[in-house]
Design goal:
Low-confidence stretches: none
Radius of gyration: 18 Å
Number of strands: 5
Largest sheet: 5 strands, antiparallel
Strand order of the largest sheet: 1-2-3-5-4
Structural class: alpha+beta
Number of helices: 3
Oligomer: single chain
Mean pLDDT: 89
Amino acid sequence: MRTMECEYCDILSGKSSAQILHEDEIVVVIVKDVVFTPGQITIFPKKHFTIMEQVPDEILTKCMIAADKTSRAVFEVFQAEGTNILIQNGLGAGQKVPHFAIEVIPRREGDGLNLQWPPKEMSQDDLDITAHQLSEETSKLGDLAAPKK
């Protein structure tokens, strides 16, 4: 149910050369030909959602579990010294494909990949305003514990 060109939906329909490493009824794990660093893996839901806020909790949970297990595999196979788990959530965050995805990026010290953002120190007034503005919305989070089985 997509409205624009979507590289990930094209992968699912066989119109791409990306290699599928894992696929189940909910989640797909792939290796793409354009990456930040060799060994980078992309995880996305089969159903098309543009941004994370649209993804139902049960699908998001499955994506995060896949990202965790994929990160473990990247450490093992590539002897990575770390991984970046990256979600570019919307155009303003650098999202290039209009489909929610999680990138697992293998890292090594001195690999030349700069994913660092210089922090900006907030004044106490800005901190208070920000906290006040967000407090009502975040109070709606409720109980974040995993549902009991």
